[in-house]
């Protein structure tokens, strides 16, 4: 089994690439889904977040994700603090989920903050999915119901395309043409399983 990192900013189409590779036989672990599960279940991590960011959980200990997002996406230092708290929890749960799919020829580790979390150290190869800025903004607004300003703030808080071009083994350009995206994804999958 090869562990293949899949990264890129919000709205680039990582989910579409992951879904296509899953159809082709890849396993898949979504770091965001792992994080959401931890946010719902891991009391130790939730307590640490509440202490660090001041009242981001309610009386029942449930995380107010929009409140936390507003805090961290407007301040790079707070985003770094969030990552420092959550990364060890996400890493352990992700590795457990990856190894549970060891029968697959490759397992994608879909992680927007792959490098920031240091998760590139357990990946055999890394793919970045990139897309034009305005396309990403439109996708985020449509998908997450954010305002234009909030979508742009989210993108601006993330690394730019050059960051991914310099660090990743493969780049998939997602310009909005789904047929081309599938062709590129299929070709890359064939290369990865060799």
UniProtKB/TrEMBL annotation:
It holds the Pfam family CoaE. Its EC number is 2.7.1.24. GO terms for molecular function: ATP binding; dephospho-CoA kinase activity. Keywords: ATP-binding, Coenzyme A biosynthesis, Cytoplasm, Kinase, Nucleotide-binding, Transferase. It is found in: Cytoplasm. CDD domains: DPCK (cd02022). Catalyzes the phosphorylation of the 3'-hydroxyl group of dephosphocoenzyme A to form coenzyme A. Belongs to the CoaE family. This is Dephospho-CoA kinase. The lineage of its organism: Bacteria, Bacillati, Bacillota, Clostridia, Eubacteriales.
């Amino acid at each position: 089994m090869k562990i293949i990192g899949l990264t890129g900013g919000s709205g680039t189409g990582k989910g579409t690439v992951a879904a296509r590779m899953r159809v082709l036989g890849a396993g898949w672990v979504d770091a965001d889904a792992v994080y959401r599960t931890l946010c719902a279940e891991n009391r130790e991590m939730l307590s640490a977040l509440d202490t660090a960011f001041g009242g981001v959980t309610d009386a029942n200990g449930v995380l107010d994700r929009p409140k936390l997002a507003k805090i961290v996406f407007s301040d790079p230092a707070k985003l770094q603090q969030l990552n420092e708290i959550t990364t060890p929890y996400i890493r352990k749960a992700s590795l457990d989920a990856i190894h549970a799919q060891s029968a697959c020829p490759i397992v994608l580790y879909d992680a927007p903050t792959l490098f920031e979390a240091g998760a590139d150290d357990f990946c055999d190869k890394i793919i970045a999915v990139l897309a034009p800025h305005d396309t990403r903004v439109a996708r985020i607004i449509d998908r997450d119901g954010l305002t234009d300003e909030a979508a742009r703030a989210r993108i601006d808080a993330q690394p730019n395309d050059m960051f991914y071009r310099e660090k990743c083994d493969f780049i998939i350009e997602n310009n909005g043409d789904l047929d081309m995206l599938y062709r590129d994804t299929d070709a890359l999958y064939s290369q990865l399983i060799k």
